[in-house]
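tl;dr need the bound structure. longer version: we got a ligand (flavin-adenine dinucleotide) that a collaborator sent over and nobodys looked at where it sits. i said id run it. heres the input, straight from their email, havent touched it
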Amino acid sequence: MSEWEKTGVLSLNDISGSIPSRERFKAGPVAIIECIQHIPCNPCVDACPFDAISINGGMTETPKVDFQLCTGCGTCVSICPGLAIFIVDLTYSDKKATILLPYELSPLPNSGDKVKGLDRGGNCLADVEVLKATKKNGSGLVSIAVDKELAMEIRNIEV
Amino acid sequence: MSRIKKHPILSFKKGREIHFIFDGHQIKAYQGETIVAALHAVGIRELSKSIDLHRPRGLFCSIGKCSSCLMLVNGVPNVKACVTAVEEGMIVESQGGKGMLDIQRIKTIPRKPPKIVNTELTIVGSGPAGLSAAKTSSKLGVPTLLVDENPKAGGQLVKQTHKFFGSKDQKAGVRGIDIADGLHEEIKASNSRVLTQAAVLGLYREDNGNFTVILKRDNQLIEVKTIAIIIATGAMEKMLAFPNNDLPGVYGAGAVQTLMNVYGVKPGERALMVGAGNVGLIVAYQLLQAGVAVEAVVEAMPKISGYHVHAAKLRRFGVPILTSHSIKKALGRTKVEGATIIKLDKNFKPVEDTEQDIDVDIVCLAVGLNPSTELARQAGCECHWIPELGGYVPIYNLNLRTTIKGIYVAGDSAGIGEASTAIIEGKIAALSALLGMGRKEVIQSRGKAFKELESLRAGPLGRVVREGKRKIFRIAEEVVN
Ligand SMILES: Cc1cc2nc3c(=O)[nH]c(=O)nc-3n(C[C@H](O)[C@H](O)[C@H](O)COP(=O)(O)OP(=O)(O)OC[C@H]3O[C@@H](n4cnc5c(N)ncnc54)[C@H](O)[C@@H]3O)c2cc1C
């Protein structure tokens, strides 16, 4: 049994197959799909306007992103029923990266708000700034700016 | 307990303000909500007293199945307050013990004479299975009657605010509530009829091979004459044995969902969720969305059995999921005022000195569902114990026909599955019923549906259901002909 099956928390090692190369990160925003279990689900494939997401060998296989085709547009983020897709942009500024994440609690924060940046276990790692918060398909989409080294750690916010 | 003011997904459209009387007190309510929702909104959770020990009884299933909410309504005892809509001036009383009929009072209640209705296909239950069956048959022009005892069509879907899994054909990425509304609209546009607040009481076979379905609606008995029947009655939450499991405040997960997501009423302020399967994980998340704190999710198994992505959503908000843990007892005298949880060893035995008291006013049980097979049994369909499918289920063949010619089953009442599979089973059952009526042209679309079902149940997580279905079909070879 893997640790995540017990805790519900993924490690970077668990999602290593979903993390693009350094070079790709340098080229701009990209989708990170944290979906490693064989569940019958595939709307992300249809949602992607660039055909960058594929599920091969039956719908219970896990999705794969073609990082060359992915533009980090974020369409998949609001479609994924598991809220398991994040857009990470390491090119935002010298020190900061942005993360676009799904947020389904009330109230939605406002641009400019300082909120808590939480990791996959709900621990607060830093105060982060909200760049933009919108609603799409009824789900909140929040873009935050975080220190680059936290770009693969922060996955939620507390408003 | 109070009304939810702001919800991230839902907006609650309140009906007209009305008033009813509960045990002598006037209560404000809104048209369209059930008696229990209105009572919960003003903080009343105790609905009746148990028969022998007079212990307080509250809501448990909220889908008309468990009889924990029986009340005296306008003098009629044993009314299911969870599926009965409040009305202006209604007199509701908590029921002490066994409900007794007051003959004098009953005489004053206006009753309508029985009525006879003719149709070709009758579908019991308007969850995803029933809705999809009705959509299929009405599209093909077959007069269809869809019956549900709840005030709103949709079964479990009406409370599912999360986006569904599956693929585009099964509306993946769409929220359960929107799936129900969409299917319902399509049926309303056809010449089929949907009867809500109508409970089916019995299915009887006539000498000519057709059936009479008896249902009750608004103090009126209706006899439906029909050629075929699809049973799509869904499932009921399992109870768990622990001291004080009968206190008001111990709810099935579905009841908590109904209160919050259909009626916009918070079931309490702080919850313990028991069970980390999909239902437990999803409802725990929905509690957060309703503004209720989730203190912990406990799970007896050493690992989380629901989808990881659902668990991850909770963990990201800091909700602890304690595997190898269970509830030892609920605390409180007349309502839940806390709970004791305990660690379990490899053999599911409690580990001494690991008790922990937590401060909650809701204990929510999500420990599995049992198929609702009462009607199938009453009609005489052969049922077997198939643990992989959730308990007793009627035996049926690949075409979803039971041991009685003309009666089909689909969805959770045919074995616990998912809304996505229920939608396809509903379609298969309807097509099989039509085939039975001589509509040969449906064979091809049914073949396609079989394939869809297979792909949804592929993969390691579909293994248990696949095994259960295999068992059923094996038995069916002997008994369905
Ligand atoms: C919290 C939760 C989350 C879920 N999430 C998902 C998901 O993401 N994806 C997915 O695919 N599935 C999901 N499911 C499962 C899905 O909701 C069920 O499998 C599905 O609703 C079963 O459909 P059904 O039509 O068989 O029954 P139900 O939806 O249970 O409907 C049965 C209906 O029959 C009515 N009825 C019963 N007896 C009678 C009678 N005698 N007379 C009149 N009416 C009667 C009931 O009132 C009810 O309305 C979830 C379930 C829960 C509880």
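gonna send this back to them w/ a short note. The two ends of chain A are 34 Å apart (CA to CA).
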